[in-house]
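subagent[fold] <- orchestrator: predict structure for attached chain, return tokens only, no commentary.
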Amino acid sequence: MKLFVKIGISCCILGFALVGCGPKNTLGTESDKTGWAYNNPDQGFFNVKTFYEGKRPNGMIYIPENSFVKGQNGQNLSMPNNNNKKRVTAAGFFMDEYEVTNLNWREYIAWLQAVYSHDPRTVILALPDETVWREELAYNEPFAQNYFSHVAFSFYPVVGVSWKQAVDYCTWRTDRLNELVLLQSGIIEYVPLGDVNANLQSNPEEDYLYIFTTKRARDYVDQNRTEEDELLSTTELLNGLLFDTEVRLPTEAEWEYAAYGLEYIDGSYQETNTYPWSGGQQVRSFGEKKTNGKFNANFTRGRADVIGISLNDTYTVPVNFFQPNGYGLYNMAGNVNEWVMDVYRATNDVLEGVNAFRGNVYDSDSAYAEAMLIKYFTNIDDELRDSMRNVMIAERGITKTGGDYRNFKDGDMQTSIGDSILVYKDATPIEKANMISNTARVYKGGSWKDRSMYINPAQRRPLEEDKARNDIGFRCVMSIVGGSEFKRY
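subagent[fold] -> orchestrator:
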């Protein structure tokens, strides 16, 4: 494990050389404020990495920051659309180029089968619901039996996955990305999954020592460190080495903004289109010789007229079947609807203008204080930990960090936290039960079974987070940190 020392030193030296990575003329071998040396055993008390290079997650494309008009931009529907116009700003982020495929999900299942071979329940809970293809008065059994598992459908979007399952996949993907970073850096060694399974069965209470998770990365790495590897603490070592943030579902605002693929023309972004492609007022392509007259997405053109069948003999199509939008993202309209992170409400008028999102549930004061202790302190016993947790809450005043804000100003007098705008005052009990649920999530994008009005990126609909359908899939995103000067993509 002497590699820890080598990595720490090389990162620091490289950081000092590449002064363009941070504020001009501030990086060096000593503090520009106190003069004390960095990473100097004879003088310095501060061991730190000063070099950072942003990483792009596998399969993702950078979506630049910008403001846009979110909400209704097509013809008014006869039903409530709950998407009034509102200008919002989305910070830059990464987004999957393609929808998550059956092959991607089979990789996930294979990992679970190897690690949890002693616990089939874990695998069963992650399997997609293949019965979503069955209809009372239609013969879809070939899809029910083959869509997820057959090689012919490997690059089709996975369906039959609930919002909760999609969130679990995002967590798993975060862990595998970061585990590979540590493997490639020589910080950890590869452990065959069969050995991981054996360790789990012998000591199930300490599973975090055998399965790498980003949340417990410190514990996983610490168990392999030696006394010689103390130039950098584990926290300092992992800082900037792991991916910036977690893989997650996009917020509704992020998804809608990315779907349009707005083009930058003469110093400004064009306004949103009806559909997410250039000249997006028609469902067919015009002007391009190779694609002229062809559909830009698969949807249902009329009763029993599913474009996917006419083009490809299937309902859905491969995730790269149509042309990408202006950002290089495929199938942001049609094919399958896509889960987003937000809790559904019939209003978005009160959302923040920057990084708009409804669905925040924060840790309690005690849990937040505990996370801070884990982050900044090591080797403190339980009694001292309890004492310091109380100091953070009582003396530092770290309070009100926790809370469930899914109902915050949501327009319902009975459940809203904060001022109410009463958008539900005339709703029936059944409407309220469906629209004011903390477990109903938004899905967007339209699908192979939707009419063209639903492939407008502004459209939004709800479904309970534990439900799955044959027309809903998802793609992932990852936030960035550090500002634009760190973008090296």
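orchestrator: received. Logging for downstream: The chain is about 25% helix and 10% strand. The longest strand covers residues 337-343.
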